[in-house]
Inverse folding.
């Protein structure tokens, strides 16, 4: 139990040193806000993900899907007739746009649904018959209908692949079983087949099976179909976005690390400023434990309100981050049908505990140091600093050992993603431990270098930084970490963008991309159409693509086959067997994308199994190619192989290149004229637009990390400002002596500026190797383990002057207040303070 | 029974590889209520001796007994608790807590000793009256004169009625008038409380007020004012 008067004294000290208290407050607030915002946004996105997946599939145990992606509806009839499995329901899905919003059109069979008791429960028995009675009739959640301004029996128009769909609102649901229903439009399956032009086709058959039925269906199911466990499938889908969440969480923890350094700095300074008072306390009989308790409770007094403020700020920020995150998940992984915000008490509690815990942890070391110094020494002004001068060398040895150890640990290929993140953050922390020694050595070297020609003012500035290494070291470390993180993210994003751009340029050959109409036409039609287009003078080259979602040993993946591809348009091959291309063209094996190879631990020459119309078949992996279109991976098969094992697949897209004698516009006009003669719609888009859209999505993906970057810099800037203020204010009496012996205010301002710039410059210099190393880790370890992607590392050289400029600007800004304070103070008052 | 005894105390430290012996074979006995003036040149070890008696610094050879307590048997935590109960310390540069008022500075030691609120206030009021600082009780130290600050320090050292008071040049930083006031107050209060006082000084006037004068010369404690020219 510590005396009430001591608390009072501490509170008054905090009030007196309001700028320092405020900066600690801001650091904790921002740290907590960012962690909470990222956590809440992640949690909301994850829930949206789960609801979106389960909302469509409901509570069923299994599903039947087709290896080719399309189920013949006869299978459903046979399933019921031959096996007598009544708890089954067919399903057809499509993404449609209605009144400016995205929805999932879900085609269900109301009668079959009664057997499963899933959507039927939500829709209700009265509404079910209406689905079947009305042509184009659909059911919407009431609040969704209200939002869209629709009433029962209203007609409305939606878009499906650029084609209008006329729908009629038959009925509304009062309540939704889960938020996914907000984005669902439910219709009878026959209506859906008709509207989507997919007569006789199903996407899935949902099943609720007992063990006997499960065994029966396994033996009965034709090889071109596959039975999957729904729960396992959902797990696989949600795992896709885990890596993305991990990235954000790691960044938010880095912000907290920098915030923690700031608090450490503030508390160290607080202890230093009060070392005389602490000495008196100890001389009066305050025990070491009581002193530590006092300092820890002081930090809690700041941390608790700061953490609450951080929670409020985090809540506000999370709405914005969620918007960015949902966008990214939509772009990269999965069409989310819901995007509701989830206020998780666990996230708030985590933020609160983290804020207070970080503060207490950051205070523990300065408090222990203050209590450890002998009472007799505490009354000597520089005792703590001398103590630090000895300690930082030992700390640097620990930091160096930790850094090297963790670097070597990260080289181990078997480590998981979480351990990679932990190692990365610990590496950054180890680097922080090295900073005071590095700064001290740099100051010594610099002083020797400038001694022959420099002014005494510059030498004083250098010595000042070295003498106050306990504060300047931590300030430089926090700024260096922030700068390095920004630098690393910039290098990683630039490398990624460069690689994606190169890949897009290589894989998107030609000038125009044409989507083939749905339903697919027969082969003779395709051949005739391609021949017609080829005859046009404006067309130089045509390649056709067949792609479908096929079942593989690694789950459902996209399988792509491109016919008439020019050699230069094959994707970059990262690993291959001998004569890989030749063997591929002859259909002797497959190419797989890099993420698939990484996640399945496959190498060129290994076997990979795909479900074909003849059942499961193993193919030789002839090469691994670079691809960024899917983090799960894709399979590329030559037309010869496709013809043999998936002959039913129709062409879904054409890529055309203009002839040498024609322009892009001429090609476009000729194509429009020719395609207008053909039945069906042929949406056309220029390859340039696809490339631009892809890069726009790329940029949007990283918008969220840039927001976190900016917040990190703000925290680091506050750290630098806090440390500089501490240094400068501590030296106010020394400055008074300089003034007393004749130094002008301007000269003194220059001295302060030199010192702050030196700190900023040192931080920028230290940030460079750390930033480069972090970028390497992000590119070669974190991204690789998250997505399975490798990339060309590029180094945007402008980042070096940018970082330097950023550090110097931060340092200059941080010098303003100490200079202003020095300027206002009279020599007499400054001397009296001593 | 003696208020304090020192037996064969040695104290030294290492600096730059050199062994510096500050105190050699110090022995001393002080009666309850006795006032001792401790003289010696600057750097002779006077302040070190006070720090050792207060338990602020630790020693490895000899013994210091205060009442029935043997300091060599205490660890640092115990020395802290002992100090706040049995010793009052007054410094040349006052060492007041800048963020506590006059009254709070004086009351601090009582609070550290968990004195009940009911008895704390009257004791504090009485002390303020004795120190003639009642009208300054809510002021912070930075607005007080040197003499006033030292009176507050005396109040803080005496409020818990310690058996032993250690004063390290308490008048060294004061003008003659203030010094006399402070000295009169300190000695008067010690006499009134029957507390023993060791006062480190360079002043003959101070030494003349003491019951006994000791000098630290060449690391040894000698009786009388040895080797000092007043």
């Amino acid at each position: 139990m510590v005396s009430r008067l001591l608390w009072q004294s501490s509170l008054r000290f905090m009030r007196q040193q309001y700028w320092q208290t405020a900066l600690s407050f801001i650091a904790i607030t921002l740290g907590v806000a960012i962690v909470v915002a990222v956590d809440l946004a992640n949690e909301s996105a994850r829930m949206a993900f789960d609801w979106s997946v389960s909302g469509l599939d409901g509570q069923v145990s299994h599903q039947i899907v087709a290896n080719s992606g399309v189920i013949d509806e006869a299978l459903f009839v046979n399933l019921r007739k031959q096996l007598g499995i009544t708890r089954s329901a067919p399903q057809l899905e499509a993404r449609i746009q209605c009144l400016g919003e995205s929805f999932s059109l879900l085609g269900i069979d109301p009668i079959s649904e009664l057997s499963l008791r899933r959507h039927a429960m939500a829709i209700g028995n009265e509404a079910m018959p209406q689905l079947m009675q009305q042509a184009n009739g659909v059911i919407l959640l009431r609040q969704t209908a209200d939002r869209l301004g629709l009433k029962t029996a209203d007609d409305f128009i939606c878009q499906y692949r650029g084609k209008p769909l006329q729908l009629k609102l038959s009925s509304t649901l009062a309540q939704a079983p889960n938020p996914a229903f907000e984005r669902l439009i439910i219709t009878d399956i026959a209506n859906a087949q008709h509207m989507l032009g997919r007569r006789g086709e199903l996407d899935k058959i949902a099943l609720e099976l007992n063990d006997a039925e499960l065994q029966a269906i396994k033996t009965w199911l034709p090889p071109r179909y596959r039975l999957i466990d729904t729960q396992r499938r959902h797990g696989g889908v949600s795992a896709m976005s885990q890596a993305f969440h991990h990235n954000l969480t790691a960044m938010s923890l880095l912000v907290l690390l920098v915030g923690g350094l700031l608090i450490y700095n503030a508390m160290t300074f607080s202890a230093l400023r009060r070392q005389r008072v602490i000495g008196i306390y100890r001389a009066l009989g305050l025990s070491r434990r009581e002193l530590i308790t006092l300092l820890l409770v002081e930090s809690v007094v700041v941390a608790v309100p700061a953490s609450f403020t951080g929670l409020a700020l985090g809540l506000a920020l999370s709405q914005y981050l969620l918007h960015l995150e949902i966008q990214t998940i939509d772009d990269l992984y999965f069409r989310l049908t819901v995007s509701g915000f989830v206020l998780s008490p666990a996230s708030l509690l985590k933020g609160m505990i983290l804020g207070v815990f970080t503060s207490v942890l950051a205070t523990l070391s300065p408090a222990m140091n203050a209590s450890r110094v002998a009472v007799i020494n505490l009354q000597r002004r520089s005792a703590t600093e001398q103590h630090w001068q000895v300690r930082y060398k030992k700390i640097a040895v620990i930091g160096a050992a930790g850094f090297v150890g963790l670097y070597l640990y990260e080289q181990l290929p078997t480590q998981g993603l979480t351990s990679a993140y932990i190692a990365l953050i610990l590496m950054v922390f180890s680097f922080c431990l090295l900073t005071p020694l590095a700064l001290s050595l740099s100051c010594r070297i610099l002083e020797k270098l400038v001694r022959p020609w420099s002014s005494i003012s510059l030498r004083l500035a250098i010595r000042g930084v070295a003498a106050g290494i306990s504060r300047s070291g931590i300030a430089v470390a926090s700024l260096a970490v922030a700068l390095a993180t920004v630098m690393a993210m910039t290098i990683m994003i630039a490398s990624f963008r460069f690689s994606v751009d190169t890949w897009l340029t290589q894989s998107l050959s030609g000038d125009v991309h044409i989507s083939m109409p749905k339903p697919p036409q027969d082969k003779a039609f395709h051949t005739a159409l391609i021949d017609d287009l080829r005859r046009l003078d404006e067309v130089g080259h045509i390649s056709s693509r067949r792609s479908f979602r096929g079942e593989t040993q690694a789950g459902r993946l996209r399988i792509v086959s491109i016919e008439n591809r020019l050699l230069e348009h094959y994707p970059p091959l990262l690993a291959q067997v001998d004569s890989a291309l030749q063997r591929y063209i002859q259909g002797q094996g497959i190419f797989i994308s890099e993420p698939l190879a990484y996640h399945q631990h496959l190498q060129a020459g290994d076997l990979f199994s795909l479900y074909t119309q003849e059942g499961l078949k193993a193919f030789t992996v002839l090469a691994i190619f670079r691809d960024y279109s899917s983090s799960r991976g894709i399979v590329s098969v030559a037309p010869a192989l496709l013809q043999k094992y998936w002959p039913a697949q129709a062409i879904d897209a054409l890529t055309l290149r203009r002839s040498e004698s024609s322009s892009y516009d001429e090609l476009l006009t000729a194509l429009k004229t020719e395609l207008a003669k053909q039945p069906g719609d042929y949406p056309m888009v220029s390859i340039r637009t696809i490339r631009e859209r892809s890069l726009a999505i790329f940029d949007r993906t990283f918008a969220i990390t840039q927001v976190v970057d900016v917040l990190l810099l703000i925290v680091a800037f506050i750290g630098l400002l806090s440390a500089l203020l501490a240094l400068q204010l501590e030296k106010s009496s020394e400055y008074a002596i300089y003034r007393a012996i004749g130094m002008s205010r301007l000269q003194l301002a220059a001295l302060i500026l030199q010192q702050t710039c030196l700190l900023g410059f040192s931080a920028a210099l230290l940030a460079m190797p750390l930033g480069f190393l972090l970028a390497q880790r992000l590119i070669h370890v974190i991204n690789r383990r998250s997505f399975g992607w490798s990339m060309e590392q590029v180094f945007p050289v402008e980042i070096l002057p940018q970082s330097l400029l950023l550090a110097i600007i931060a340092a200059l800004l941080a010098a303003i207040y100490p200079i202003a304070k020095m300027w206002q103070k009279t020599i007499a008052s400054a001397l009296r303070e001593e | 029974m003696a208020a304090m005894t020192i037996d064969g105390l040695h104290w030294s430290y290492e600096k730059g590889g050199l062994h510096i012996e500050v105190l050699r074979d110090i022995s001393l006995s002080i009666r309850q209520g006795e006032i001792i003036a401790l003289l010696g040149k600057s750097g002779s070890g006077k302040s070190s001796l006070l720090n050792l008696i207060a338990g602020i610094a630790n020693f490895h050879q000899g013994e210091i007994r205060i009442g029935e307590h043997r300091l060599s048997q205490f660890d640092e935590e115990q020395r802290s608790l002992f100090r706040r109960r049995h010793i009052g310390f007054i410094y040349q540069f006052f060492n007041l807590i800048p963020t506590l008022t006059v009254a709070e500075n004086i009351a601090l030691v009582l609070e550290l000793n968990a004195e009940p609120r009911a008895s704390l206030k009257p004791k504090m009021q009485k002390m303020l009256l004795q120190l003639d600082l009642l009208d300054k009780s809510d002021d912070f130290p930075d607005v007080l004169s040197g003499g006033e600050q030292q009176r507050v320090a005396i109040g803080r050292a005496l409020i818990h009625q310690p058996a032993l008071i250690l004063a390290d040049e308490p008048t060294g930083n004061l003008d003659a008038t203030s010094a006399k006031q402070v000295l009169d107050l300190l000695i008067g209060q010690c006499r009134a409380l029957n507390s023993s006082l060791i006062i480190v000084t360079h002043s003959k006037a101070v030494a003349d007020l003491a019951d006994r004068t000791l000098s630290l010369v060449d690391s040894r404690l000698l009786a009388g004012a040895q080797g000092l020219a007043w």
